[in-house]
Design a protein that fits this description.
Shape: globular
Distance between the termini: 38 Å
Order of helices and strands: EEEEEEEEEHEEEEEEHEHEEEE
Radius of gyration: 18 Å
Helix content: under 10%
Largest sheet: 9 strands, mixed
Number of helices: 3
Oligomer: single chain
Number of strands: 20
Length: 288
C-alpha cells in the first residue's frame, strides 16, 4: 500500500499549525547548486550511477513557499521507482563491483520565521532539529534481500555501510562524498540511504502539495506521481506516517519508534512503501 505522506504532515500555513495526525510544512525549492565533480566520474563502461535520471529534481524546503517542505528522519530507505531514471529499479546493483562514492541533494531550510505580506511562515531548521535531533546527517548502506518466501513486506540484511556524514555545511547544494574504503557489492544488492537524524533531501511535486482550500493541488497528477515515484523505508507497515499530537505537540507512536538500520548483519523488515516523492541521492558503482 502506498503512503502519500511520509515522515511529516504538519502544515506550516501562514501563522498557524493545522490539526491532524500528519505534519506538512508549506515551503519551497531551495537554492540548488552543484558541488565539485565526483572523483570517479571518468567515462567507463564499467561505471554506473545508481539513481541517475534525466529529469532534474530539486529538494523541497527553503524560502520559496510554493511547495510543501519535507524532510526525512531516522530511517533507512531506497528509491524503488523514479520517472526519468536510466534504470527501472534505481538502486539495484546490476553487477559485482564497488561503491566508490555517493551524493545527496539538499535543500536550505530556513532558520528563522519569515513574513511575506500578510503571511508568516515558521522556521524549518529548528522544527526538524526538535523532531529528529541535530545535526542533519546521512550515510549509505548495502542491503541484501533475505527470507524471500516469507509473507509480508520484504526483509533486508544490512551487509555494509559507509561512514556518517554531517550535512549542515552543504545545505542548498548537491554534495559528493568519495569513499576512502569503497563498499563491495554484488548483483541484485541494494544501495540505500540511511538517515540517523534528518535530511532535507526529499522531492515532492507541487501537484501533491496541500492547497489553501485543503486537499492536494492536483489530485489526478498526484495520483500519477504516486506510481512514478516510490521508495521503501525501514518501518513497520502500521507506523509509516510520522507526526505529532496537534494539541500537545508530542511525537506520535510512529515517530517515537522509527529507527534506521545501522547494525551490520542485522535484518529489518521494510514495511513502508511511499509514493509521490523521491529521496535525492545517488551511488557510483565501479565494476571489476
Amino acid at each position: 500500500m502506498l503512503n502519500r505522506q511520509l515522515t511529516l504532515s504538519k502544515q506550516f500555513p501562514p501563522a498557524t499549525v493545522a490539526a491532524g495526525a500528519a505534519l506538512i510544512l508549506l515551503a519551497a525549492i531551495a537554492v540548488f547548486s552543484l558541488s565539485a565533480a565526483d572523483p570517479a566520474t571518468a567515462k567507463s563502461s564499467n561505471r554506473v550511477v545508481l539513481g541517475k535520471a534525466n529529469n532534474k529534481l530539486t529538494p523541497n524546503c527553503g524560502n520559496n513557499f510554493s511547495r510543501d517542505c519535507l524532510a526525512e528522519g531516522k530511517v533507512t530507505g531506497y528509491q524503488v521507482y523514479r520517472k526519468g531514471s536510466q534504470r527501472k529499479r534505481s538502486f539495484v546493483v546490476p553487477r559485482e563491483g564497488k561503491v566508490v562514492s555517493w551524493s545527496i541533494s539538499l535543500a536550505k531550510p530556513t532558520k528563522k520565521d519569515i513574513r511575506k505580506g500578510s503571511n508568516s511562515y515558521s522556521a524549518q531548521l529548528p522544527f526538524f532539529n526538535d523532531l529528529f535531533g541535530t545535526p542533519a546527517s546521512a550515510r549509505i548502506a548495502v542491503l541484501k534481500r533475505v527470507k524471500k518466501k516469507e509473507a509480508g513486506p520484504p526483509q533486508y540484511k544490512m551487509v555494509r555501510q559507509s561512514p556518517t556524514q554531517i550535512l549542515n555545511p552543504y545545505f542548498g547544494s548537491t554534495v559528493n562524498f568519495a569513499l576512502n574504503k569503497p563498499l563491495n557489492v554484488i548483483k541484485n544488492q541494494i544501495v540505500a540511504l540511511t538517515i540517523p537524524t534528518w535530511a532535507p533531501a526529499v522531492w515532492k511535486p507541487r501537484s501533491c502539495s496541500i492547497s489553501p482550500a485543503g486537499g492536494v493541488n492536483d489530485p489526478i497528477a498526484c495520483d500519477r506521481a504516486e506510481k512514478d515515484y516510490t521508495w521503501r523505508g525501514s518501518r513497520g507497515k502500521d507506523k509509516c506516517t510520522l507526526g505529532t499530537d496537534p494539541d500537545t505537540g508530542e511525537p506520535n507512536a510512529a515517530l517515537k519508534k522509527t529507527r534506521p538500520q545501522q547494525k551490520v548483519n542485522s535484518t529489518k523488515r521494510y514495511g513502508c512503501y511511499y509514493g509521490s516523492n523521491v529521496l535525492l541521492y545517488t551511488a557510483t558503482v565501479i565494476s571489476k
